[in-house]
Amino acid sequence: MSLSLLGLLTIGAAPRSHRARTGRRRATIWHALALLVIFLSSVFPFYWMVTTSLKKQADALAYPPVWRFTPTLEHYIDALFTHDVAGSLINSLIVASSTTVLAILLGTPAAYALARYEFRGKRDLWFWFISNRMVSPVVLAVPFFLIATKLDLIDTHIVLILLYLTFSLPIVVWICTDQFRNVPIELDEAARLDGASPWRVFWKINLPLAMPGIVVSAIFAFIFSWNDLLYALVLTRDNAATSPVAATNYMSGYELPWGEIMATGTLIVLPMVIFALLVSGRLVQGLTMGAVK
Amino acid sequence: MNKRFLQRKLAMASLAATSFLLAAHASAWTLKEAAAPYSGTTLHAIFLDRPGYTAAEKLIPQFEKETGITIKWDVVPYESTRQKEVLNFVSGGAQDIVLVDVVWIGEFASNKWLVPIKKFTDDPKLADPNLNLKGFFPILLDSFGTWDKVTYGLPFDNYSGLMFYNKCMLKQAGFSEPPKTWDDLLNVYAPKLTDAAKNRYAFALQSRRGETQSADSFMRMLWPNGGSLLDAKFKSNLMSPQSQAGLDYRQKLMKYMPPGIVDFDHAEAVNALAQGQVAMITEWSAFYPTLTDPAKSKLGDCLGIATEPRGPAGLKPALGGFSLAVNAKASAKKQAAAWLFIQWITSEQMAKPYLEAGGVPARTAVYQDAAVQQKYPFVKPMVESWQGGVPDYRPRFPEWPAISEIIGEWGTKMMLGNVSVKDGAQTIGSKMEAILKKAGYYDGKKPLLK
Amino acid sequence: MLNGTVQRTNPATAARKRARLRLWPRSPAFWFLFPAVFALAVIGIYPLLVALYNSVHQYRLADLEAGTPFVGLDNYVATFADATFWQALGRTMLFLCLTLPLEIALGLFAALMLHRSGLAWMRAAARVSLVIPMATTYAVVGLIGRLIFNRQFGVANYLLSFFGVPPQDWLGDPTLAYVSVMIMDVWQWTPFCALILLAGLTMVPKEAEEAARLETRKRLTILWHIERPYLLPGLTAILILRSADMLKMFDAVYTMTRGGPGAATEFISVYIERIGFRLFDQGLASAQAMLLLVLTIVLSRLYIRYIYREVA
Q1: Are residues B285 and B310 in the same domain?
Q2: Mean pLDDT of C46-58
């Protein structure tokens, strides 16, 4: 899947020529319209959030909605410094990066083993890996809270990093297993014949060739870790609170500062969106450079 | 003769000496000295995003300067506060100053999470001789800080339910005064003030599921009618004719309130009045600054403030507020430092600065000043409300949070018309009694405290 | 993912591999797997066991003075007898049955549009834009929903006014609140379905497509006969992941409606969170969460058995 997921990002790169006939032209117009709708509906809520964050409170609450306005950065300043969204972003960055790195370190060898070796119970083991991602956070939040309390790990980064492995590790295993399967076994065998140990085969041959898929799994792991709310709500206080927790701090019933809420939302989401957009381009590079078909 | 003269001289000298010593001792207690052993301590507190806390935050630097004690606070939404505090208690999380809502005192006290203030008031090194517990409004000290005759906290963030209304809208409809009774509000005022086509409604009752529904919407309708949640034996009193009358009244009021009122929380109700959509609201006194802020409110001079309307049973306005208490799980040093802060911020000498910074202190003395009454129009109705109110407006026992959840669910269902008032009240009653039975109130295991 | 390409091995190698049927500590596979399995076991299994333990005890965080006695299956019995639990579960399953087909259908439509040749740069733009909803934090999705569906100044009512529809009380009306949550979920996850299905479509050999197109003009026929086999693995992945996600759904609902109005959007995870962290009855919440886990696993195994197909 991973390879094909990368593949999709390159389709359309090679243009095909047709003769434009009237029927075709009409179809093309509908096609263009459909694509426009897809584009607008994906982007609109995000656009709305960003513009609201730049409007003064009066503009934000205006009805009919205001499309032209003078922007202001006051909400961002408020959110970043008065409400310490800046601190929560840093926490999110630390936690998400660490758990992604850990997931890759642990997950890629496991995925390789699941792809290359046969053994009894493999199917069940694979399912067990995947099923961890299906566990509702509510199940684990409570016991984890109690355990973390006993170990005095409440409100630390490490407790979130470890807990997030329960879904980042399965993602890495899921995507990378498939990726490793697509690496031709002949290369493995050639290396073994040359006297390479299984670890060398993994490290020197398979890992570089599977890199695009590994990167994709890292992206997903990072995004899902960044976005988690429930575990962070329960396990952190003011030291290690991540950014989704900051988003919920506005839910008090007394005042709803929409500008600030949307500024916080933008600050939380923008890094992810930019990251994903940037990386989609790099995935193309990785594909054309290293992938073996 | 000489002997007696000497005796008298001696007596007078010792009298003088004693009184000198006493005077010296009495003037010896200063905050600075009392706090000296704790200088350098950092305390953790949880605050809400409300005017009373912003006011405290403005004054805290003064305390920090004088004592060398640092205070760090977490601003948390009300809905998450109890959760955070309970988790802190259970996990030994860092929190020294506890914010206790009126309805949490029973739970926190019976779990032994709070330190009775007697520990500090008995300690001459920590107790300010000017503490004057009698200087608090009795209803506030009793309701917010005392459980089973033991005081754990001092009232800090104090509210009364008040009626805020739009004088101009009322005038346009032909009324020169706000309604004095709930009956008047429904039958005389509401029809004239409601015009759905123009998106104008007479009243907005904040009713969102949660503590808002239980305290602001549900309980408010019971007391003025002579009803109540529980009877003397702690069984449900919701089926009594007075309670039913109160809940029926609320249903009748629905057509004079904006659609979607069941989702209105405080912000929405206050905003509705501030933007001119509704004519009257009964909300917490703490919203006065919001309603007079020209950036947030269009009311200007049109704002009127009065006590809540009366019912057949008299003036029974909503009562709410928070006290500050000391976490029993904190170290002795932090406990002492926390006490010094709590004592200071609620003291009589800080009452006026606190009021001027935007807070609402619980001291009677500060409100007797005519200038203060003039400057803050909410003072008179609020003091009147506090003098006559119901201390157990909501039961404060540990079972309240669970009962509040039930009322939140079924109270909103009643308003939405998903269940009739009778059936809803019946359901709440039976679920509530199940909880109370399990807790042991009906077989004498637990004293009937609320 | 699950397009299960069969390993390309020659018979000799396959035989050698089949001989190694067990995981010995000597075999390299064991050491490749061990760190991950160990980590996941400690972090995943151990807390589950704690949850199981709690579910058979009385464990009230706000009432620890009463102790934590063993209560056997009381918590489970209480859950089965709790009408609110079943209502929450029913609400969640209904959400699943309504939203998932919608996401798959819209996702398929989007995938077909992105797969169809022509308009290269427009397709690229649309494809890249699909990343935005997927990358948005769920909690923020809920906040955006609150803004857009606000009765007074929300842009949803504004757009409706163009069609002559009066302003709706999206978040105050129980049915509409449910619909609002559906809309935000569809917005966020249709791109996910679209991209996975698109990946499947790109695996279809071009020759087969062209040949089919010469034979029939009906798009649907081509879809059913040629493209479907390549879509099925992706479809299984979507079903498994989205079902699990919907049973876990908490963040967006929490920030958008808190489970209200009334109980209209109280989905099962929202309900369990309330029991565990508002009423602080950890014993009961653990029991409920166990039942939820069992349900999730059963569903996943059913999907795999009946829908998953290997593509040669």
Answers
A1: yes
A2: 88
**Could you tell me if residue C212 is inside a domain?**
yes
Picking from B83, B398, B416, the nearest residue to C262 by CB comes out as B416
Structure confidence at residue A13 (pLDDT):
39
* CB hemisphere CA count around C261 (13 angstroms): 30
User: Which chain B residues are within 8 Å of C283, Cβ to Cβ?
Assistant: none
Within C56-137, where are the H helices? 74-81, 83-115, 120-129, 131-135
- Per the structure, the complete domain to which residue C110 belongs is given by 75-306
Contacts of C43 in chain A (CB under 8 A): 162-163, 165-166
Closest residue in A to B90 (Cα–Cα): A149
The single residue listed with the structure tokens 């809420």 is: A261
Structural domains of chain C, count? 1
Q: Measure CB to CB from residue C261 to each of B111, B209, B398 and give the nearest one.
A: B209
Tokens representing residue A154 in the block = 């409440």
**Which other chains touch chain B, taking contact as 3+ CB pairs less than 8 Å apart?**
A, C
Provide the residue range defining the domain that includes B118: 31-159+320-388
DSSP class per residue in A116-168? H---TTHHHHHHHHHHGGGS-HHHHHHHHHHHHHHTT-TT-HHHHHHHHHHHH
Residue A105 has pLDDT above 60, yes or no: yes
Q: B154 and B182 share a domain? A: no
Pair B66, B88 in one domain: yes
Do the chains contact at A254 and B76, CB–CB below 8 Å?
A: no
State the architecture of A83-290 in CATH terms. Answer: Orthogonal Bundle (1.10)
Domains: count for chain B? 2
pLDDT digits (tens, 9 = 90+) for B294-332: 877 888 889 999 999 999 999 999 999 999 999 999 999
Least confident of A145-154, B182-191, B355-364: A145-154
- Supply the mean pLDDT for chain C: 81
Position C274 scores a pLDDT of: 86
Shared domain for B411 and B285, answered yes or no, is yes
Longest dimension (CA), chain A: 74
Q: Is A258 on the interface with B (CB under 8 A)?
A: no
Is it the case that residue A18 has pLDDT exceeding 70?
Answer: no
Residue of B nearest to C257 (CA): B263
Q: What is the pLDDT of residues C174-188, one digit of tens each?
A: 889 999 999 999 999
Comparing CA positions, the residue from B424, B405, B402 lying closest to residue B413 is B424
Shared domain for B408 and B353, answered yes or no, is no
User: Which chains have 3+ CB pairs within 8 A of A?
Assistant: B, C
In a domain, C96, yes or no: yes
Q: Does the structure show a pLDDT above 80 at B368?
A: yes
Tokens 């009495």 belong to B26
Cut 0.90: pTM above it: no
- Which of B80, B91, B99 is best to mutate for the A interface (most A CBs within 10 A)? B91
**Over residues C246-259, mean pLDDT:** 84
User: Cβ separation of B401 and C278 shorter than 8 Å?
Assistant: yes
Over residues C72-93, the mean pLDDT reads 91
Residues 67-86 of B with CB under 8 A from A: 72, 74-80, 84
pLDDT band of B202, cuts 50, 70, 90: very high
Q: How far apart are the C-alpha atoms of C281 and A138, rounded to whole Å?
A: 13
Cα diameter, chain B: 102
Q: Is residue C131 part of a domain?
A: yes
Q: Residue A277 is nearest to which of C120, C128, C199, comparing CB atoms?
A: C128
Nearest CA distance, B14 vs chain C (angstrom): 55
Residue B20 lies in a domain: no
Portion 193-232 of A in contact with B at CB < 8 A? none
Give B4 or B301, the one with higher predicted confidence: B301
| Helix ranges restricted to H, A203-257 | 207-227, 230-235, 243-248
Closest in C173, C263, C280 to B86, CB measured: C280
CATH code, C229 = 1.10.3720.10
pLDDT confidence tier of residue A17, bands split at 50, 70 and 90? very low
**Is C59 domain-assigned?**
no
> Which CA distances in Å does A265 have to A50, A89, A270, B221?
8, 11, 8, 38
Q: Are A232 and A163 in contact (CB under 8 A)?
A: no
> Which among A64, A169, A185 is the nearest to C39, CB-wise?
A169
Region C116-143: what's the mean pLDDT?
A: 83
